Amino acid sequence: MIVNFRDAITIEDLRRMANRRLPKVVFDYLDGGAEDEVTLRANSEAFSSITFRPRNGVAFDECDLRSSVLGFNLALPAVLAPIGYSRMMHSGGEVAAASAAGAAGTAYILSTISGHRLEDVKTASNGPVWYQLYLLGGRKAAEPTLERARNAGFSALVVTIDTAVAGLRERDYRNGVKALMGKSVLAKIPHLSQLIVRPGWTTSFLLDGGLRPLPNVIVPGNRPMGLQDVASALASSTVTWEDFRWIRETWKGPIVVKGVLTGEDARRAVDVGAAAVVVSNHGGRQLDQVSPTLRALSEVVEAVEKDVEVLMDGGIRRGSDIVKALCLGARAVLIGRAYAYGLAAAGRSGVARALEILKSDMERTLRLLGCPSVKNLDRSYIDVALMRG
Predict the structure, then answer these.
(1) Which of 123, 176, 184, 274 has the CB geometry, 3.0–4.6 Å to 191, for a possible disulfide?
(2) Could you tell me how far CA 200 lies from the centroid of its own chain?
(3) Cα separation of 293 and 104, whole Å?
(4) Neighbours of 185 (CB within 10 A)
(5) According to the model, what pLDDT value does residue 388 have?
(6) Whose CA is closest to 32, among 283, 230, 225, 253?
(7) What is the pTM for the complete model shown?
(8) Catalytic residue among 90, 116, 191, 282
(9) 46 contacts: CB under 8 Å, gap ≥ 6
(10) 282 is catalytic
(11) What domains can you pick out in the chain, each with its CATH number?
């Protein structure tokens, strides 16, 4: 059993460490998906349906992982995805993750549902930091937050379009999330054993102030929104295509549309002025039994016809997964759980280790493929026959 994050050699090692440190209610929030979790599993399984076609007998000195996304030069084509309230996984939360991303030479995307002030998150990173938008509290709450993000130096806006309501994440219900976040002490009692058996996390969580409100969502009364209010706020503040006129007027930088699974939505994103789209099913946490993102990627790439950059997320656990996505036309990927397991296991150092693992995986895969640069990757390096079947 690996007990030190430095000894982790795979993302799965970090996942197991996170599972040992976190209470079940928190680990399942991170690890779980919607309903029967069909899409959650399919996202990862889709990668095994693609095989490589290497060019053997090839050697080269340099292995170039650098990529350009939205005009930003990244050391590797893997951006840290927005994860809601990652401060619950570790007190460093979004600040720790942004710091590790910047040190690794890549970008970090801050969720609206953040436990840390956006200004503190931007200050922590020496790389690009983007802001992910939910219209929690409506446009009136979003406008001053976007102004804060612009003033702080956030360089792109990521708009998530697949959260008309929160998905049915059954693990959360069974673990008593609603009761633990509520005010009734009696309702909490049946679920407190999860916290008692993880004294290290529980002590750290309480010393950090427990369930803090959201410092980047200021609602009427000039107060931050409570975390327990997020689900109902999401249901009443769905982002629609009609909102993009206002979004373009409010945010003058690049806009990324996240939550695209079809060519039709990809073209609509182009039409509303997106600079990039993210092929995403929210990590299998929203509508279950939709296409795994790797399978949807080609349709979106073909639909946009190079008018915008295409990113993707979902199921990425190895550097070879990233390589396969790039072969299918993704400019870069977003990683979520892969770095969050590291965050939960060891804070900033755990995130840094996750990125080291993925980077090492990518370089080894490229060398074994006989491909000197991620810029050279295309479909000739893979066989997708199994995925088509």
Answers:
(1) 176
(2) 26
(3) 25
(4) 9
(5) 57
(6) 283
(7) 0.96
(8) 282
(9) 292, 293, 294, 295, 315, 387
(10) yes
(11) 5-382 (3.20.20.70)
